[in-house]
User: Fold these one by one.
Assistant:
Number 1:
Amino acid sequence: MVLGVIDYGIYIPRLRIKAEEYIKVWSRFSARGVKEKAVMDLDEDVMSMALESAEQAVEGVDLRDVKVLAFASTSPPYSERLLSSFLVEGLGLNRNIFTSEHISSTRSGTEALISCINNLKSIDEGLGLVVVSDSPSASMKDNLEHGLGASSASFLIGFGDVVAEFEGASTYVAEFPGERFRPRGSDRIKDLELRGYYLDSFHENVSGSVKLLLDKLGRKSSDYSYFVIQQFNGVDPLRVALKLGFTINQLKTGFLAPILGDTGACSALIGFLRVLECAEPQEKILIASYGSGAGSDALSFKLTRKPGKKGKVSKALNKREYIDYLSYLKLKDAII
């Protein structure tokens, strides 16, 4: 029986800050190709965003059928605490549900998606829910902070009348120490600002997972209408994708870093949601995530029908309220 995405949800904070606000203060903006980014308000956090997107994904569903829940984030509010229980309670899911949590890298979003799919296959019944929510944070003094955004994406996974059929996945892992990382006990990510080294890692791992999957499925890059890649800025991932043989036309629909920033574990999956609303039946979609350290997942989907509730993604992207840099500092608790 066909397995894939049945429905989905999205949440993007309405608050945005433009690159020019950074330039006014710092005389520079270090996130290449990013024009603006999404920013959480005082009454928003990773778990509230997660609940918002998850509620959309399970709307109209018999919640007793949800047997598997996978949650992912690089910026969880607790270092040790079950986070999926918050979603189980907030959504009203069964208490005998199997849950998993993925929080170690920006690859964790696709990791959660693959985990949910595999766990659902093992029981061969019911529905699975994947919830990815992220708002990575860095020191306000670091260049890395400039591009960090926020968002949440959720996917209802099941059998039968799916919107997008899951066709397969591959993973590639290669050690590259010293990239983006978050030390134990810290809530801020860091990097050594070695761009060339980072790009070497990104290229090796992403090309590794993509080539493995294409070989597995007996396909080439031109067989896909859309390619969605991890987006840590608005320039370098495009260059890597072009080196892999993909075109701007395949990339542009799901490339949202220029207007959302680096949304961490959500990065490739928010782009996937945008593609789901734009693609036509039978068109194929390839997704490639990346997590420093380093590793990459590649996943293949085929759109089987148009989503029943179109417009959720466009509405979330277009709902904007711009703030200045002083307001942003207050939201980040950088000033009182």
Number 2:
Amino acid sequence: MRAVVLSIGSELLDGHLTDTNATFLAQELTGLGVELLGVCQVGDTLDHILRALQRAWEDAELIITTGGIGPTADDLTREAIASLLGEPVTVNPELLEQIRAFFAARGLVMPEQNAKQAWLIPSAEPLPNPIGTAPGWLVRRDGHFIVTMPGVPREMMRMWREHAVPRLIPYLGGGAIRSVTLKTIGLGESVVEQAIADLVAASYPVVATYAKDDGVHVRITAQAANAAQAETTIARVAQEIRSRLGDHVYGDETTSLGTAVLEPLLWLRWRLGVVEVDSGGRISNVLVEEPLARDTLAGCLVYPCWPASDTLTLETLAQEAIALGHVNLERADCLYAVVIRMTPGATPDRTRGEAILRLQTPAATLERRHQVTSPASEIRRRVSLWAAEFLRLALLQQARQRLPG
């Protein structure tokens, strides 16, 4: 099957938004064995959307649209599809009631213009939207499929994976398609890909790497005669990847980075105190939102800068941060200092960042240092990943040394 993705919205053409939806769908289609012929960004003009749909209809069997299904006058995707197929739109009472209930659950009355989001055409079935007001469409007509989804990424991704893909799979050659994502930290994407180069190059299963905010992800996708065969293939390849990348693999798509960092503390029955200086509180934010934080986190101290930090060594800064943790985080069994010192360069992107990571536990004191030249925000982002990686690996080491098995 061949596909075309249409990203609809004038804000994409104005440069105010980055089209992350198209990137996501391109990756998904590759995993499904669908040939993506192209991606087209279209503004909120009915004639332009219709022409893009007509070209896509001529070129591909599957058209995927994102955006343009809101309640306002410039949301025109439904109108364009109806025009393309020459079908009338009607308000579906069941969809309308679902949208009213969505507003009522939030103590609101549905604006009448939202009734537009309950439109259907005869060739379309609705795709549920559990976290938004705009249902999608799955259109089947003359050997073609049109999947129409919201432009909001979190709504689109759930609708695609939970509702669109299961409906499309029977038309993608039969069998079952399964995928697993392994999450890694501490290695760059090129290093990860080099370590599994033969698996990436193999035609089956499909293995691909993606750089994300929480590390590098490795996705494995297999299509087989049945689910058991696909899952067996994925399990075999996943085990091989884990053996090659070792502790750099911290989990799968169900594992958050924060959970992976905090789990060893649960095994050790330690509470962690965190002190951050000029890091924007990034590592604290990764940890405090996790359910495990209740049982493993004693507290966090975040400082935007340190008085007279230019005159102190990084070693002294780390010592002072740990000392503050002892005074203010009395419930902590171990303390973690993440300290960054910024030195302005000739331009903002030449800012020099020095970082020291120090972990003090009942068993040992461990330390790591980093240097990077980049904009301040990028320095903080990189240091937060290094800090998460170092903390997790150090705690894992402590757990292995202290716990049987």
